[in-house]
Structures are given as C-alpha cells and as structure tokens.
C-alpha cells in the first residue's frame, strides 16, 4: 500500500520495478480533486 500524499517518487516506476500487474486506487472525490495527488496518477 502506498499513500500518494507522502510518496513523492514515480509510482509507475515503482510498479514496473516490483512486477505489479494489478492495482487499485482508493480515494474520496475530495482527495481526487486535490491537484497534487491527481497529478501523480495522471500519465
């Protein structure tokens, strides 16, 4: 589990390095409207 509020590295690089094939992003609408967090998920 990674909390994107505190994780500032490239999440997609982490996923690739660790062979992760499935993931889930669990956020409230308020959190997804937080631009810094949403930008970490945008690719």
Descriptive key words:
single chain; 43 residues; mainly alpha; 3 helices; 42% helix; 0% strand; globular
Question: What does the model show?
Answer:
The protein has 43 residues and is mainly alpha-helical. The protein has one domain. Helix content is 42%, strand content 0%. The chain is built from three helices and no strands. 0% of the residues are buried.
Give a brief description.
It is built from three helices and no strands. The protein has 43 residues and is mostly helical.
Number of helices: 3
- What's the helix-strand series? HHH
Q: What value does the average pLDDT take?
A: 82
Helix content: 40-55%
- Gross geometry: globular
Roughly how many Å apart are the termini?
20 Å
Rounded radius of gyration (Å): 11 Å
Architecture blueprint of SSEs:
Elements: H1 11-17, H2 29-32, H3 35-41
């Amino acid at each position: 589990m990674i909390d994107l509020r505190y994780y500032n590295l490239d999440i997609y690089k982490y996923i690739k390095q660790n062979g992760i094939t499935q993931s889930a992003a669990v956020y409230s609408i308020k959190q997804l409207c937080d631009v810094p967090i949403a930008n970490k998920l945008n690719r």
